[in-house]
Amino acid sequence: MNELDAAGITGDGLRAAYLACRRLNAHHGRTFFLATRLLPARARPAAHALYGFARMADELVDNPAPGSDPAVELDRVASLVDVVFDGGEPGDPVLVALSDTVHRYGIERELFDAFLTSMRMDLKPVEYETFAELGEYMYGSAAVIGLQMLPVFGTVGPQADAVPGAIALGEAFQLTNFLRDVGEDLDRGRLYLPLAELAAFGVSRSLVERRRPDPRIRAALAYFVARTRAVYRRAEAGIPLLRPESRPCVRTALTLYEGILDEIVALDYDILTRRAVVPKRRRLVVALPPLATVWARETVRGGRRLRS
Hints:
Blueprint: H1 3-6, H2 12-28, H3 30-36, H4 44-62, H5 70-85, H6 93-105, H7 109-121, E1 126-127, H8 131-153, H9 159-180, H10 182-187, E2 190-191, H11 195-199, H12 205-210, H13 215-237, H14 247-266, H15 280-307
Parallel strand pairs: 1-2
Helix pairs in contact: 2-3, 2-4, 2-6, 3-14, 4-6, 4-7, 4-8, 5-6, 5-7, 7-8, 8-9, 9-13, 9-14, 13-14, 14-15
């Protein structure tokens, strides 16, 4: 069944807005997009809308259009978020879909404000002394993503019980991004690996910026990988608190994203000049069995509706 029909999304303009978000997700978020295929059809458009908003803001900062001012563009987006929560018409297709999603699922305004705050923190050269200092950025850039998705996933008990797992899921994915993209981030003047943690292994920012193999860097990266795996375990503990039909999506996304850590280890932590990527074959091996189950279930339901 068409995702938009399953979600009860009508009107040409609104449907076009959701399709624009879906295209953004399919193009930029390969792993997340694959995992969203495991959600019930009615929930997928909301996942695309939330991803589309995050990607749009992120692109304004990381890949600004020539001649544009990222700070001004983020202010523009913030003003559109004001319109969304004031019940107005934001105009931009991504914000149109976002508006529909936040009102359908009752997603809190504060989560989007916190996200934009973290995006602004990336506008200047970035470094953090400790994980505690990194925490504010991580809340806005990662934890709130898990919290935005939580109403879409649904829970089997009080939503508050599932909050720690949702936060851990966002943080695990973000910490993985920091490790996968460390070279690209250096190109943008950013280093998200806390300096005090690096210093414990005899590693300075200048040593990392040389981008040469070094046993001290390797040891530090091994520590960060192990620390990130512990966050994945906390996220995994929260999966049983989600609605059963959402668990395959989250479990698959978690498995695929943690697979990036496996690839980092396989590269012997030599990631300063290259990017660790989960091979397509492995993504399919992980995702195809649950995808087959979802497709079979939706085919049966679609057949029942047709007969009715």
